[in-house]
Design brief:
Layout (H helix, E strand, L loop, with lengths): L1 H7 L3 H14 L5 H7 L13 H5 L2 H9 L3 H8 L3 H12 L2 H14 L2 H9 L6 E7 L18 E7 H7 L3 H9 L9 H15 L5 H9 L2 H5 L5 H4 L2 H7 L3 H10 L7 E3 L3 E3 L1 H8 L2 H9 L21 H10 L7 H8 L8 E2 L16 E2 L1 H7 L8 H16 L23 H9 L7 H12 L7 H7 L11 H16 L6 H12 L9 H12 L15 H9 L15 H17 L13 H6 L7 H21 L4 E7 L2 E8 L10 E2 L2
Antiparallel strand pairs: 1-2, 3-4, 5-6, 7-8, 8-9
Helix pairs in contact: 2-5, 6-7, 8-9, 10-11, 10-12, 13-17, 16-18, 18-19, 18-20, 20-21, 20-22, 22-24, 23-25, 26-28, 27-29, 28-29, 28-30, 31-33
Length: 663
């Protein structure tokens, strides 16, 4: 009573200051506000005295309520029916506050407040949200200040919001009233429903989705969106949906062969999702309702992981399994799946990837190798990985054969080889791991190289692995791989040396790397002949390299426009010095031309930049030849301006004359 008399005797200005002070002290509890109103918080009931509220000045009550959040205000009015009658006009009278109260009711599943908002004039199917746009900082182009703050209303569906907030009681009330998704623009409604279904199809909300499906939500959403949004069967299975929920999806009309986009797996079919995450009973349920192991071909962009096909999902699960259980894969094969099927996929570019076209493919064998979780797992997991890989290889799993690996040509293979994929992911140091090397041995002995042995020989002799402290581990693993290659029947070490030298010459390396030099010396020690006619054309490595240097390649055709011009030239000169120091003979003839004449035969038609670096490389070739063959060479004249090569051997007269000047 004293507090009421104090308020009645206090001017309105002082009451406003008092309400501000109360707002600063107000946290979550409504006790200060209720004390200010003139009654205690404990005896809140229907029989409490309302005379104190009636004698409270209206402006005092408005000032107090204006500092409350819409949720706290609605919670205050719900404490007592008399207080609700007294304060509801302030909550529901302006349209903006009415809509805010409606949003609060949808958020907290308050059916009574929702009905009050509707009775006060709010539409039943649509709620309007007012957002304030911030003005642009500074001034605009005309020199005026930023545009004023504007209020842009956004219409949302109450049915969609009740599902998004998991307000099942309001959802049932709206369904009983016959509310649908009308009143919202179709484009905006599809966006809202798409976000709604993404939120519902998650591991923590599958129970709510099942309860909504039992209430008819899936059939209600079908007419306002596409099939992928209405029935995300694949995403629900990946999230861990039960068989009961899957049956509800199928009863609502979900397509068991429709592929859905998943954030982790890309485009994935329901059967593939079941193979990855569920048991055999889920697979049998989907197959019983018409799920196909061979889905129809769709033209879509290459995915990160092509798990849309059930066979690819089966091999991924097989790679991550810790037991030797191939029942799922055998089930796929028994239904007509091809173990060497190709699917579009964009492979990640590793550190040493060559330039490749954007359209790439994958096979079940590559998916298995890519899905191996770790090389340092448990003993059971390692044994299961080897047994499952051996099963795939025995059943004929391969990758598509690559084009002929001609030295000096850039192979634009759309599918990487097995070893390229493994080494790019785990690096050369992983070859020192016995488990990793056992996997590599199975692939090499099974002939899964796909003609890519030359690409492997040239790709991994560069980069940071050539510097300490990586060199020792990288060279140990690299030598182990080279020895494995040489142990295979029909492998010529001279051909490997040819690939290593010629193809490394097309790279934009700053210098001859340590790993390349060590690999050349190791192959020479294992019986390789650097002057052998091992190229497909029948020429030696040095002659083949000079042939390659005549023509620009895709990775060096713009070298004269880049700052790497001099490093490339220095690398090629160092490579020639390396070959000549290891016994390469520049006087060996092929089709009537030796290495120097092969290098400069197209000099007349070359562009000026190419002509300049060919002269530099050719000068290095002749200088090195004059030093290396100081004993057996009787005469060596080198002149660049006009170019003159005259080399005569004592053991047999072999001379090359080329004298012509190019400006």
């Amino acid at each position: 009573m004293r507090l009421r008399e104090c308020f009645l005797a206090t001017p309105s200005s002082a009451l406003t200051k008092l309400t501000v002070v109360l707002r600063q002290d107000y946290s979550i509890s409504l006790r200060p506000l209720l004390i200010l109103a003139g009654f205690m918080a404990e005896p809140l009931c229907e029989t409490m005295c309302f005379g104190i509220i009636e004698t409270l000045p209206l402006e005092v009550f408005q000032n107090i309520v204006s500092y409350l959040d819409i949720g706290d205000e609605a919670r205050l009015y719900s404490t007592c029916s008399r207080l609700h009658i007294y304060g509801v006009p302030f909550l529901l009278e302006p349209f903006t506050r009415n809509q805010r109260a409606m949003l609060w009711a949808l958020r907290h599943d308050d059916v009574a407040l929702f009905q009050c908002c509707v009775q006060a004039g709010a539409p039943l199917s649509v709620v309007t949200v007012f957002k304030t746009k911030k003005p642009e900082p500074g001034v605009n182009k005309t020199g005026e200040t930023g545009r004023p703050r504007v209020r842009s209303p956004k219409r949302l569906s109450t049915l969609a919001l009740s599902v998004r907030r998991q307000s099942l009681r309001i959802f049932e009330h709206l369904r009983a009233c016959g509310v649908s998704f009308e009143g919202v623009a179709p484009a905006a409604l599809q966006t809202q429903l798409r976000a709604l279904m993404k939120r519902l199809v998650s591991p923590g909300r599958l129970g709510t989705l099942q309860a909504l499906a039992e209430c008819g939500f899936l059939s209600c959403i079908e007419a306002y969106t596409d099939r992928d949004t209405a029935w995300p069967l694949s995403r629900a299975i990946v999230a861990g949906a039960s068989e009961a929920l899957v049956r509800l999806f199928l009863q609502a009309g979900a397509d068991v062969n429709a592929a859905h986009e998943h954030r982790r797996f890309g485009s994935i079919a329901p059967l593939s999702a079941s193979i990855l995450t569920s048991d055999a009973s889920m697979n049998q349920l989907l197959v019983h309702h018409g799920a196909a192991y061979e889905p129809s071909t769709l033209h879509f962009r290459p995915a990160t992981r092509p798990t849309r096909h059930p066979l690819f999902a089966a091999v991924r699960r097989l790679a991550q399994s810790q037991v030797h259980d191939t029942s799922i894969l055998e089930d796929c094969l028994s239904h007509g799946c091809c173990l060497n099927r190709t699917e579009p996929r964009v492979w990640d570019r590793g550190f040493n990837w060559d330039w490749r076209p954007r359209q790439q493919f994958s096979t079940p064998l590559l998916e298995f190798l890519d899905a191996i979780p770790s090389m340092t797992g448990t003993a059971a997991q390692k044994q299961a990985t080897l047994q499952n890989l051996a099963f795939l290889v025995e059943r004929g799993a391969r990758t598509p054969a690559a084009p002929d690996d001609v030295p000096g040509t850039l192979i634009q293979a759309t599918t990487p080889s097995c070893l390229e994929l493994l080494i790019d992911r785990w690096q050369l140091e992983a070859l020192n791991n016995d488990h990793f090397f056992a996997i590599v041995t199975i692939l090499v002995e099974a002939g899964c190289m796909d003609g890519a042995m030359g690409r492997i020989m040239r790709r991994y002799c560069r980069g940071v692995r050539n510097r300490d402290p990586f060199f020792a581990a990288a060279w140990c693993g690299w030598r182990r791989l080279v020895d494995l290659f040489l142990a295979q029947p029909g492998v010529d070490p001279s051909a490997l040396l040819l690939h290593l030298l010629v193809d490394s010459g097309t790279k934009e390396m700053a210098a001859v790397e340590r790993l390349l030099v060590a690999a050349v010396d190791h192959l020479l020690a294992r019986g390789a002949d650097i002057n052998a006619s091992a190229s497909p054309l029948g020429s030696s490595a040095l002659h083949m390299l000079c042939t390659v240097y005549q023509h620009p390649t895709p990775d060096t055709m713009w070298w004269h426009r880049s700052p790497y011009q001099e490093p490339v030239v220095e690398h090629r000169r160092d490579l020639l010095r390396l070959m000549m120091s290891r016994g390469a003979d520049p006087l060996l003839r092929f089709h009537g031309r030796n290495a120097p004449t092969e290098l400069v035969q197209y000099l007349n038609v070359a562009d000026p930049s190419t002509r300049a670096w060919i002269k530099k490389v050719g000068r290095t070739l002749c200088e090195v030849a004059s030093v290396v063959f100081d004993g057996p060479v009787a005469k060596c004249n080198v002149r660049f301006g006009g170019i003159l090569f005259l080399m005569v051997h004592k053991t047999g007269r072999r001379e090359t004359k080329y004298d012509e000047t190019y400006e």
